[in-house]
Amino acid sequence: MILISSLQTQSEEVMDTHSQYLRLHRQDIAYFRFIIESYDGMAVVRTKDPHEAIVELMVAPGWERDMAEVLDGLRKEIPIEFLFPETD
């Protein structure tokens, strides 16, 4: 029973991430993912549409301000277009 409670708590924490949707150039997706995920635990990148080069950036709770600074720096290197979040 304790194991199940522990797993439920971990699942709930994952749901607290904040998603941002971005359009990049296709050739920049791997670089973008490498830079973002090098900040261990801050965010995860998932490619939503490889043809349109749309990625989902899932930011961990409490890291939003830091991620904004990282994105500001990356925008000086590669084009990043911020898209509206999907609605469920």
3D architecture notes:
The protein is α+β, with helices and mostly antiparallel strands and 88 residues long. It has one domain (16-83): Alpha-Beta Plaits, CATH 3.30.70. Helix content is 40%, strand content 25%. It has three helices and four strands. The protein has helices at residues 2-15, 29-38, 64-74, and strands at residues 18-23, 43-49, 54-59, 81-83. It has a four-stranded antiparallel beta sheet, with helices on one face. A hairpin with a 4-residue loop joins β2 (43-49) and β3. The longest helix has 14 residues, at 2-15. The termini are far apart. Mean pLDDT is 85; it is low at 1-13.
How would the blueprint of this fold be written?
Elements: H1 2-15, E1 18-23, H2 29-38, E2 43-49, E3 54-59, H3 64-74, E4 81-83
Antiparallel strand pairs: 1-3, 1-4, 2-3
Give a short synopsis of this structure.
By secondary structure, the chain is α+β, with helices and mostly antiparallel strands. Helix content is 40%, strand content 25%. The model is unreliable at 1-13 (pLDDT under 50).
Provide key terms for this protein.
88 residues; alpha+beta; Alpha-Beta Plaits; 4-stranded antiparallel beta sheet; 40% helix; disordered N terminus
Given the helix and strand composition, which structural class is it? Answer: alpha+beta
Order of adjacent strands in the largest pleated sheet: 2-3-1-4
The helical percent reads: 25-40%
For the record, give the distance between the C-alpha atoms at the N and C termini, rounded to a whole number: 32 Å
Mean pLDDT: 85
Q: Can you tell me the overall shape?
A: globular
Could you give the count of β-strands?
4
The CATH topology, please? Answer: Alpha-Beta Plaits
Number of domains: 1
Largest sheet: 4 strands, antiparallel
Radius of gyration from the alpha-carbon trace, in angstroms: 15 Å
Top CATH class: Alpha Beta
CATH architecture group name: 2-Layer Sandwich
Count of helical segments? 3
The stretches of 5 or more residues where confidence is low (pLDDT under 50) are 1-13
Tell me the series of helices and strands, N- to C-terminal.
Answer: HEHEEHE
Amount of beta strand: 25-35%
